[in-house]
Design goal:
The protein folds into 2 domains: 80 residues, SCP2 sterol-binding domain (Nonspecific Lipid-transfer Protein, Chain A), CATH 3.30.1050; 321 residues, Vaccinia Virus protein VP39 (Rossmann fold, 3-Layer(aba) Sandwich), CATH 3.40.50. 44% of the residues lie in helices and 16% in strands. It is built from 16 helices and 11 strands. The longest helix is centred in the C-terminal third of the chain and has 24 residues. Pfam families: CMAS (PF02353). Keywords: Lipid metabolism, Methyltransferase, S-adenosyl-L-methionine, Transferase.
Length: 424
């Protein structure tokens, strides 16, 4: 055995979950009964496995230098056992924090942000349609009842947001990062609001524009292809939602982002930020190189913060956090739904991708998304990442509620309104 093979054997000997390794020579390490086999097609691909750099190993899988035999769920049991330090990266050194700040500044401007969004969301609408729900809601669902399927849970999530914002007929509502329009249409059709959405994805813009025409909602639903920093409405909005968007903003722009939320909202109005956060207090990426994998293949420019820093930043922008809810287990279940949907239709998914890219590129994109969906499901299951809905207000400095002096906003400071029978 080579030194690398010895290192791998030692790692397998201490692994809680059985794993079988097939070497480039044809030799096998690990028990025959293992549910997962990882086959290495050249010696260089063995190095990430020996060192525990799972992000680099994932990259080898995407490029085809390593292949997997086994289900995604079984593979994630192995990954959970291999990830060091309970999924948390080591505490960053001072120079690393400086580098993060500089890198965040360099990677986030209007042009780069638009390119990074399109890299992910404009892969292929037809591809996303294969594994998302019929409304193509690409964010954490809300399994209000245990027996809900994905489509029901996504509708429940849309309604949960609308209820938290206490949307009323005729109010002006903004959706920052509107995706394929699920929340826009749910709010307009069920709550009677005048709805505006913005996106940086050309595919999503085209899709929502077409749906507005088909549904005959042009008088009260609109979509703009623009950056959140460039939206200048004639007057501020009554209510605002940002779902699955602030992950793309970057540390360097987080204060600016929440300041824009503040300025887009009328005094007394309410906003909802629904986004992924990292569990480590030091805001480091997930350990084992998994964060690097997502940065390279899935979400370039994506940066996760701890929820405490997000709340600090919004507070500094003049907003008041009035309610925060962690939906972490809901996102684990959502991601497994997406992963299972994709796994059930792999040949169709690859054929769809081949319509817009070369066969080799289509195979790589599919392998990347398979690892990404299952890996993110694992991250939420294990608590390495979380999903928080943060409800905030822009206080107006006045006692505007006759029933609650000093409230200073539309928020009633009683959570029962979210679950009570709806009011028009």
């Amino acid at each position: 055995m080579t030194s690398i093979e010895h290192a791998i054997q030692n790692r397998l000997d201490h692994l809680a979950v059985p794993l079988r390794i097939r070497l480039p020579s044809g030799g096998v390490i690990g028990p025959p009964s293992a549910e997962v086999e990882v086959a290495f097609h050249d010696m260089a691909a063995l190095a990430p496995m020996a060192s525990g750099n799972l992000g680099a190993l994932g990259a080898k899988i995407v490029t085809g230098e390593v292949s997997i035999d086994g289900s995604m769920r079984a593979l994630m049991h192995v990954v959970a056992a291999l990830v060091p330090d309970d999924g948390q990266a080591h505490k960053p050194k001072p120079w690393q924090r400086v580098w993060w700040s500089l890198a965040s500044i360099l990677r986030h401007n209007r042009e780069r942000d638009a390119a990074q969004i399109r890299f992910h969301y404009d892969v292929s609408d037809e591809f996303y349609q294969i594994w998302l729900d019929p409304q193509r809601v690409y964010s954490c669902a809300y399994f209000r009842k245990a027996d809900m399927d994905l489509a029901q849970a996504q509708t429940a999530k849309l309604d949960h947001i609308c209820r938290k914002l206490d949307l009323r007929r005729g109010e002006r509502f903004l959706d920052i990062g509107a995706g394929w329009g699920g929340l826009l249409f749910h709010a307009a059709e069920n709550y009677g609001v005048d709805a505006t959405g913005i996106t940086l994805s050309q595919n999503q813009f085209d899709h929502v524009s077409q749906l507005i025409t088909q549904k005959g909602l042009g008088d009260r639903v609109r979509i703009h292809l623009c950056d959140y920093r460039d939206l200048k409405p004639e007057r501020p909005f009554d209510k605002l939602a940002s779902v699955g968007m602030f992950e793309h903003v970057g540390r360097a722009n987080m204060q600016l982002y929440f300041r824009n939320v503040h300025d887009l909202l009328r005094p007394g109005g309410m906003a909802m930020n629904h986004g992924i956060t990292v569990s480590g207090l030091d805001d480091a990426m997930i350990g084992g190189g998994l964060g690097d994998f997502i940065e390279k293949f899935i979400f370039p420019g994506g940066e996760l913060l701890h929820v405490s820093l997000a709340i600090r930043q919004l507070s500094q922008a003049g907003l008041e956090m009035v309610d925060t809810e962690n939906l972490r287990p809901h996102y684990a279940r959502t991601l497994w739904c997406w992963s299972d949907n994709l796994e059930a239709r792999l040949p169709e998914a690859e054929a769809v991708l081949r319509k817009t890219m070369t066969p080799d590129r289509a195979a790589e994109v599919l392998r990347a998304f398979r690892l990404y969906l299952a890996g993110c499901a694992l991250a939420f299951e294990e608590g390495w990442t979380s999903l928080y809905q943060i409800l905030m207000t822009r206080p107006d400095g006045q006692a505007t509620r006759h029933d609650l002096p000093g409230a200073g906003s539309d928020y009633p400071f009683r959570r029962d309104y979210i679950y009570s029978p709806r009011r028009d």
